[in-house]
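Let's practice the habit of predicting before peeking. Look at the sequence and jot down your guess about where helices and strands might fall. Then scroll down.
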Amino acid sequence: MELSARDKLIPPNDDHNVLLHSCCAPCSGEVIEAMIASGINLTIFFYNPNIHPQKEYELRKNENIAFAEKYKIPFVDADYDTDNWFSRIEGLELAPERGERCTKCFDMRFERTALYAKEHGFSTITSSLGISRWKDMDQINTSGERAASRYDGMTYWTYNWRKNGGSDRMYKIAKEHSMYKQEYCGCVYSLRDTNKWRKESGRPLIKFGEAFYDESQR
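Done guessing? Here is the structure:
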């Protein structure tokens, strides 16, 4: 990786110790490499109780751990407290993607991230969620800022990870490392709706653990 090919990242308040909420290895790969190239010390915080089923959760988490180990980045494996997640989004089972259910999900994950940051001396948090073109960046940033505002002196870094080729590099990194390819957002309702669309389109239903970004490398 060449720093000259990237913007020099300047975190809020020039704070070079950042807690990164990671949703998965493919989304966080470019974010991680960009931070490293700018001399930022980061710790990965994996808290995603929305991911269903547990087999899928373990696939995503373990790949994230493996990628972190390649760069010797500290990795925090948080709880898989699915009961709390289902309680949090109760009544929103039929809400559309990018709707209120997603907001509740982001709030829950970022609140836990901010709490860990407060307890372990981080004043800057951010997330890899915003790099995906399937997500509403404003929705994510608003949830992140809301979570950070619970603690004095904490900031959610709203950097646009997609810009200046970030999204393209995300896919390039995923292919270079032959990462597991997630075929739905993660939650049981996203899985339900994706499979419904696939069935109506005559496509095969999702099979866990079978799709990768570059099969030739496996």
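How did you do? The chain is about 45% helix and 10% strand.
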